[in-house]
Design goal:
Blueprint (H helix, E strand, L loop, with lengths): L1 H20 L4 H19 L8 H4 L4 E28 L2 E2 L3 E25 L2 H8 L2 E3 L6 E3 L11 H5 L2 E7 L2 E4 L6 E4 L1 H8 L5 H5 L10 H15 L2
Parallel strand pairs: 5-6
Antiparallel strand pairs: 1-2, 1-3, 3-6, 3-8, 4-8, 6-7
């Protein structure tokens, strides 16, 4: 029985790795940006749930990973691919593509798809996203963000967190603990999307024009940032 479980773990890891690193087409990347817009709008459109305004108004970067997969059979794993845009001196930047992957060990079984939002709330969080790879909890201070549009968020995140995380699964909203997960730049997808090997920092600092098919996503982030400032 133990051998069978180990085989199932190895098979699961192979599936996760294959899905996470499979090559994408330009059409796939456009769909990913579109999905990120839909996820953000659905989460921000929830009346009394989701991300508090006083968090959104502090955002320096907003990342959205649509349909991150979380699965477990004794060993738990998660992976997902998404996009990030950051605030610049003249609006929000063109998006770049990222991956997130991680695992945990414990008595667990099951699997689900989770929509994930990752918010950098200060310049340290922004600098984290300029790194080619970082581990949440080790290289970047992250915590599960408070939930509730008008609820009072704890002041602790202002002092101790660089990144706040939110998730939605089966219509339920919650902060999510991603400590141990690794966030990495997806340079291959970014280069494919732009047709040019731009550096991540150049894009996120606003030095690259927003592609036409990414304008709706970037405008949605800008809209909710301004809306949060008005509350």
């Amino acid at each position: 029985m133990i051998k069978i479980k180990k085989l199932m773990v190895l098979a699961s890891l192979c599936c996760y790795a294959g899905a996470a690193f499979a090559s994408s087409s330009r059409h796939d990347l456009t769909d990913r940006v579109d999905s990120a817009k839909v996820v953000l709008e659905q989460i921000m459109g929830a009346t009394d749930n989701g991300i508090p305004y006083n968090i959104m108004e502090q955002a320096t970067c907003v990342g959205v990973i649509p349909g991150m997969i979380k699965g477990a059979f004794v060993f738990g794993a998660n992976y997902g691919q998404g996009v990030v845009t950051c605030r610049t001196g003249h609006g929000w930047s063109a998006p770049v593509f990222i991956r997130i992957a991680g695992g945990s060990w414990g008595l667990q079984i099951g699997g689900q798809a989770v929509d994930l939002v990752l918010i950098a709330v200060n310049d340290n969080g922004f600098q984290d996203l300029l790194k080619s790879k970082f581990k949440i909890g080790a290289n970047a201070a992250a915590s599960a963000g408070p939930v509730g549009r008008n609820g009072e968020a704890s002041t602790d995140w202002k002092l101790t967190s660089e990144l706040l995380t939110y998730s939605r699964s089966r219509g339920l909203f919650a902060g999510i603990d991603l400590n141990g997960s690794v966030v990495s730049q997806n340079t291959g997808d970014t280069a494919l999307y732009y047709g040019h090997d731009y550096h991540f920092s150049s894009i996120l600092k606003g030095n690259v024009a927003v592609p036409q098919d990414a304008v709706p996503f970037v405008q949605s982030v800008a809209h909710y940032f301004v809306e949060a400032k008005q509350h």
